[in-house]
Here is the input.
Amino acid sequence: MAASGTGLSVQASGAPQPATDEQVNEPERLASAFSSVLRGAGLVVTIRRVMAFTEALRLLGVGSRDDVYWAGRATLVGSPADISVYDRAFAVFWEGREPSGMVVELPPISVTLATDTDDDSDSAPPGDGDEPDAGPTLRVRYSDVETLRHKDFADCSDGELTELHSLMGELRFQAVTRRSRRAVRAKRISRRPDLRRTIRRALRTGGEAIRREYLIGDRKPRRLVLLLDVSGSMEPYARALVRFAHAAVIGRTRVEAFTIGTRLTRVTRELSSRDPDAGLAAAADSVQDWSGGTRLGATLHEFNDRWGVRGHARGAIVVICSDGWDRGEPDELAEQMARLHLVTHRLVWVNPLKHTPGYAPLARGMAAALPHVDEFIEGHSFDSLEHLAAAIAA
Here is the structure.
């Protein structure tokens, strides 16, 4: 299949430069040019999606129309509502059809792949100085250390936070199980015979128990409870943590999510939507104390009385995400943390400030809560939240 790539029926803002057939059919060049068409048509196409489409073209080639179509649709389309726009752009770009009213500004594109060791300047690659300007250069940067995954949420731009939020949808939450009182049929010989099923089977063979059946104790997943501090001091991290909670709610069974600040708000139902944007918007609407004060002791007291001790926290893994700044009395917080620790399977505290060089838990709230915590970990970046997901499953 011949791509209409750099010589397509789309409007270009400059005269295209001559290119050989090999250059035109480079996966990087084709993927970036097609992505520009999709962006011009109104779709949101991130660099991560472009890199995935590039790799797909490198593996499949461009000889088959169906291979290219489905590779692009699987990697570049983020919503079913975008499929119709994608189909129109595909017909214009790859099949050379008439735009049918679609006007796309596509400048000449020169693609270079850069590594972390390359110069960070945005200028074009160096040349002899006598060559004509070949148009803007799109530098696709990759990094072995994945800098964005380690970047502090407080230092991220809005676009970087959007990219990180999309990455959180890929987090995998392995359920931790515990023994149940219920018994199920065992596939192998165990110490507990299943007399009822053995007798029933013996009736089919004239009363002879030729095959014996056994029982084994069943296991069920432990409940995970997330308590997220949404006070003013946690503003740079609150939305990322709520997005993490959304990924946990839809990716794992038996999850409860609450926000804590000046009051306790249950947001499990709001975060159960498969659409992360809709889930976060619904949670934000239901939380009335967003970016307000902090009363950790009082909100934990309410949680213990209404939810925790009565069953939600009993035998569960409880994760508290907070920087420990509290306007309440530290004695009350210490008392409620002790109550909570008595009924939980494991109590984890996530503090975004822990990664700061020279950090010490000197805040009154953090100092009061720390003796009752089983695990104290960081929560300032995507990488730290990956470690949190692993710690939950440990």
Notes: The chain has 14 helices and eleven strands. The longest strand covers residues 177-185. The chain has a mean pLDDT of 80.
